[in-house]
DNA sequence: TCGATGGCTGCGAACGTTTGCATCGTAACC
DNA sequence: GGTTACGATGCAAACGTTCGCAGCCATCGA
């Protein structure tokens, strides 16, 4: 392993000069700087992160905590976060908590000391996790607690767009198939729908209880949706929407003729299934990137400041495909 | 931050004893050990990875390099790898190379010094990457080079199972829609198919050129498949299979009545599309776990040994769904 | 010509841990 | 009872880097 000492010897300077030439180039004379950088390049010098972190108090690494890496939603966020971390020359530890609050807290407390800060994505035990990370900077994704920085998808506007679309098609009674009980996103979506319904005034929203955010959840919800007499339904995510379509068809109902279905997230299944799903697309890679940006800012900031509380909402876009259409002329369906 | 010194003071011992009590408990007397562990627990002591890595020469972290985190295939491998790394008390840096060979080499050379070893998943520039990581241990996933440890999916057996299945249904002419030109997996699949065809002797395989491993690749391949006169087709992965089905249907052909389709990977789209795809499932999380296991073994091993070359094949399972059926004209096989 | 100024550079301590070696005390053995 | 041997513990050096401080030299002003 090639160290500062090797570079120093090759360049004919002291190790301090090597360190400075690479870390703060303006503090060293141009000719020296060039000799050093040339030597470093030639020898293939790579600073030892552990050593520099030890002395400087920074590790040069961030942590990303997600409930489920195999979920395309979180995979997309992770991809964006990783890309930005790389651009900034930072390493990124990725941890999958398997949706387990205990594992989440444990991971956070284990990760915190060896990183400069953490991104907590859709945390399941946010209070204990925040406690576990001590004074380490943190950015929350799709969650919010007072005093912390967070990056969230603009669910409220998303729900408004969905409802506008359905209303324009002629729907007046819309069901919402909700996600996990303790999901922050689900709560925001319900709020958004309620607000949108009030604003559009002649659309009625029927909220349905907690369902698993999987295809199975959609299957389970389908019959309840039919029973509400709604002519359209908004699902917690695309998988739930797929499950809905599956069960509705099994009952002999047509999508979108008998019931329009709107998904969320624009996971790539949305355009593969039949019919392709109308859905709300959010740029998840962007969410990951922004989260890392905000975290970097926090890491650079003086520890006393703590950073102001912010909740940054990222745009959502309605993607219209074939799962939504005007309701049957007769109006509300009769089961 | 609480250090060994704090723990030592609290337990009334020296810092060496603290270090030993926690790292190699058998080397310290039981009562002392207990005093130390109690103090450590009480103070919430977390060893500083940077410091311990600096002195011991190990970082306590591994690296995982994948071409595309958003690809469910690699996301699944990453999930498995992460889980096992956590179980072993190791951190896992995850890097997404965006399928870019240059970025891959750069990532490897940046990651190598700050990890104890790397898992390279479906590398796109394996030679230069291996060179870039110096003497650092490495495990290859779905690739193989002489002298290195690798974990691969048993494509040969997979192809045999697929061909057996199709032959039993009565198919005698089977097309293969291949993946990217330089893909190691694709090469293995072609070999496997050829071997299987020879073994089954009355089945003929028609190989089709390189296609993108996406839905679009399948669409592009569909007409060529039809032109071959094959009654069944095996696709490089499930997305390609979906594209095939899409285009075939657009041409008025029925799957599986006119053409049987077999995918690969059992990505979760496989069971969501119509018809649900018969596919070859490999346990990708398991591949990730095993890769980390092998890497840990390499890290522990004496550096001189270098570890023996191995190529460990993980099992593949045929999952039969509705996209395969007997060919239209002939009944069940009657030689 | 001399002192002051300021830009570059080198020295050495420190970060928190591990570990080879020395030390101490005690038990075992003759 | 004296010697040996060994287990338990402490001391201090080292890992590779950063950074405060000090020294050096040249330039500039008086």
Overview of the molecule:
2 copies of one chain form a homodimer. With 335 residues, the first copy, chain A, is of the alpha/beta class. Chain A folds into 3 domains: 4-47, Orthogonal Bundle (434 Repressor (Amino-terminal Domain)); 57-153 and 284-313, Rossmann fold, CATH 3.40.50; 155-282, Rossmann fold (3-Layer(aba) Sandwich). Chain A is built from 12 helices and 12 strands. Chain A has helices at 4-11, 15-23, 30-43, 49-56, 72-87, 101-111, 126-132, 155-169, 184-200, 215-228, 238-250, 284-300; strands at 61-66, 91-96, 118-121, 138-141, 149-153, 173-177, 204-208, 232-235, 260-265, 278-282, 310-314, 316-319. A 6-stranded parallel beta sheet of chain A has the order 2-1-3-4-5-11, sandwiched between helices. A 6-stranded mixed beta sheet of chain A has the order 7-6-8-9-10-12, sandwiched between helices. In chain A, strand 1, helix 5 and strand 2 (91-96) form a beta-alpha-beta unit. The longest helix of chain A has 17 residues, at 184-200. Chain A is elongated, with a radius of gyration of 25 Å. In chain A, 51% of the residues are buried. Chain A binds chain B through residues 1, 46, 48-51, 53-54, 59-61, 68-70, 72, 75-76, 78-79, 82-83, 86, 91-96, 98, 107, 109-111, 113-114, 215, 242, 268-269, 272-274, 285, and chain B through 1, 46, 48-51, 53-54, 59-61, 68-70, 72, 75-76, 78-79, 82-83, 86, 91-96, 98, 107, 109-114, 215, 242, 268-269, 272-274, 285. Chain A binds a DNA duplex (30 and 30 nucleotides) through residues 1, 3-5, 13-17, 19-20, 23, 27-29, 32, 47-57.
